[in-house]
Structure formats: C-alpha cells, structure tokens
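Most newcomers find our protein records easier to grasp once they have seen one. Sequence and backbone structure share a record, each on its own labelled line. Nothing more is needed to start thinking about how sequence determines fold. As an example, a complete record with its sequence and its structure tokens follows.
=====
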Amino acid sequence: MTDLVQEARELGPSIAERSERIEADRTLPGDVVDDLRSAGLFRFFVPAELGGPEVDVATGMATIAEVARHDGGAAWCVMIAGTTSLLAGFLPPDHAATIYGPADSCTGGYSVPTGTARPVDGGLVVSGSWEWGSGTRHCTWIGGGTRIVDDDGSPTRRADGLFAPFVFLEPEDVEFRDTWHVTGLSGSGSTDYTTREAFVPEGRWVQLVGAKPRLDGPLWRFPFYGMLATGVAAVAIGLLDGAIDRFAEIAEAKTPQGSGRTLAERASGQTAISTAEATARSARAFLEDALGVAWETASAGDPLSIEHRRVIRLAAADAAQRCADALINLQRQAGGTAVYLREPLQRAVRDGQVAATHGMVAERIHELTGRIRLGLDTDTRLL
C-alpha cells in the first residue's frame, strides 16, 4: 500500500515553492492539483473495494498535517476531499463506484442544507447556492446540502423519511461565483457555487444526520462531522509545525535592531519557539489519543459513544484554537521580518486564523462539549 504520509512529505517542498502562486490564484493551480491527485491525496478514505487506500483515521490526519506544514491552501483541499471520500462507504454501490471508482476521483462541497431538493420520478431536482466550496473547481463530483421541499417550496419529508440529503452534482451542473477574496487560506478556492434545476438520480446522496454506512469496518463507524473537525485540526497543527520550522530559520539569521545577539540567542525567541512546539505537540497528542481510543472501539465492532464523539470534537477545537494563538505569537516575536507578504511565516499565520473560524472547531464548540460534560440536555445530532 502507498505510504500517503511519505507521499505528502516528498511532495511538500515542491508545493511550498508554489505557495505564492497558489495564494495569488485563489485556487489550486492545475499543476498542483495534478501532483496531489497523482499522489492519491484526494481520496485516502475511499474503500479498498473501489481501489482506494482506505487508510485509518490517524494516517489520514497525519497526511493532512504533513501537507499543511508546507502550504495551508493545498492542505485544506486535501482535507476536504479526503474527509468527503468517507461517504463512499455510505452511498449505494452503483453510485459509490461511479463517483469514487475512478483513480482521479475528488469530491467536496458544503454540507449545510442551504439548497432545495424537490422529489420527482427517479430522484430529486436540486437548486441552490452554497458558500465555502473548498476545492470544488477541481472536483470530479460536487456535493451540496439540501432540504426536501414540496412543489410549493415548503420543507417536507419523503415517505421514506428523507429530509436533508447531501447530493452529488456533476460539475457541468454547477456554476462558480467569484467570491473568494479573503485574508487566509486563499489557495483553497472556497468560493460560492450554484445550481439550478439539476436532476440527481435516486440514491446519489447521503443524509448525513443519522446516516448508516453500507460498509462494515472501523472507518465507517466514525461520524462525518467529527472527521471533518479532526481534519481542520490537522491543518492547524501542520500549519504550526511549518511555522515553527520557519521561525527557527528566521531566529538563527536575524539580529533585531539595537541588539548584539540573534533572535535565537535571545530569551524571547527561545521562549516563543519552545511554547509553540509545546502547543503543537500537546495538541497532536490529545487529538491522536482521542482518535486512538475511538479507533480501538470501532475496530472491536462497537459504535462510538457520545463520549467518544465529544472528546474528538473537544480535541479538534482545542487544537485549532490553541494553534491559531501560537501562530500569532510566533509572528509577533519574528518582528518586522514577518510583515512582508513574501514571508512564508505570515501566510501560515493568516491561514491558521481562518482555519480556527470553521464551524466544526470554532470556540463555541467548547459550549457544546462543556454542556455534555456537565450532563445537560444537548442536541448531539451534529456531533
């Protein structure tokens, strides 16, 4: 089996060399997409029965973090495509094979049900607009969250209970809007996209809330939203890893104005890199522990409990928030060197701040995990 972490490690320096272009293009350039696709980094959870790597959760997260060490936008696209590929284990066999069978498959999209889906003979007719379409310009299939509506546009359910399917659209049914002008993760190409009256054949969707996997195995017992949160955390950790490496290079070469010692020889530089490393290592350790405990349970054939899911989300939110703060401190301690757009450190800092705003790891997640810890009645459907 291909070692995806090693693939990411070997590809990383080449991606870093293209980071300025990735950011300027506000989407991944074609050559970067080709390299990531050839390395298999867009489909790491695709099941083996479809020719996919079907790696364990820890390997998937380590792969994301390794790409993020070199470029945040590329890592974000790898994260979205990789976590979305988990849905191959939930789709009916024919649609799973069509979408994820090809070796160049890549999926993504926004799961919040802002679109509408009207039942018709043989499937659904879908219309809608979605934000946050990370990497969708290079996806072979594009997903969108929808709500079932009747002919009058009022929310309803089908007779089988379907009410909020995440549908898979063909790229030719999607129009992209030029909305992605942002402070960080510019290269992720997370632009708005729309579709109008697109026909989606029966079953080419997954109802994410309460979805039951078609395949059996530990990977398919992990919750989609928890995996998404974990992927965002992996990006944050990888960004901090890369920033620490870059800060070390700056500190060894820089002598601050008015000082006779390099930044590396000053207590402020030593403290900054030490505390940042402690943050990266502890965030990774907590996340790996949470995933490891859950993986053991899933491997034994048991479903993950609410507590498993809570701790995964707690670790993910903790990692994203603390890494974002640590990145800011590294930039501050690097001084004027880090204000230039040509400096890779400032790009990692900006990317980390945007990553920390994601709804799956935002600071408010601590309210959710805290309520459950305190035994309060809590809606856990999206946990």
